[in-house]
Amino acid sequence: MAWLFLLMAGLCEIAWAIGLKFTEGFARLLPTIGTVVGMAASIGFLGLALKSLPVGTAYAVWTGIGAVGTTALGIYLFNEPLTLLRLACIGFILVGIIGLKITS
To answer: Which residues form the signal peptide (predicted)?
Structure first.
């Protein structure tokens, strides 16, 4: 169950990071509320996952999910550059996440 909580925390991490872009510097009320809710949910799920997962593993996986998902959505939603080097770096993060899951 802890890994499911960690996945949910990572997905909420992606949601608030992308939501932050839509707040336009916290000038838009509804995106700001959604972003804050995403932040709280992300931390809440991370806290539940930490009941049984090592903090180093959980934190690294949480931030990794957030980084990969936010980068992918940035490319898709905001036309951020998609280069071979960026894809390789995302691949390294994914390998790290999988490695931490396998060894935990």
So the answer is: none
| CB-CB neighbours of 19 under 10 Å | 20
Write the CB contacts of 45 (distance below 8 Å, at least 6 apart in sequence): 5, 6, 8, 9, 12
CA distance 49 to 4: 8
Helices (H), the chain: 2-22, 29-49, 55-78, 84-103
Q: Can you tell me which residue has the tokens 């925390």?
A: 9
As given in the structure block, the two tokens for residue 9 are: 């925390």
Q: What is the mean pLDDT of residues 63-83?
A: 96
Cα–Cα distances (Å) from 79 to 49, 58, 59, in that order, read 33, 30, 28
Range 37-41 average pLDDT: 98
* Nearest-angstrom CA–CA distance, 13 and 103: 23
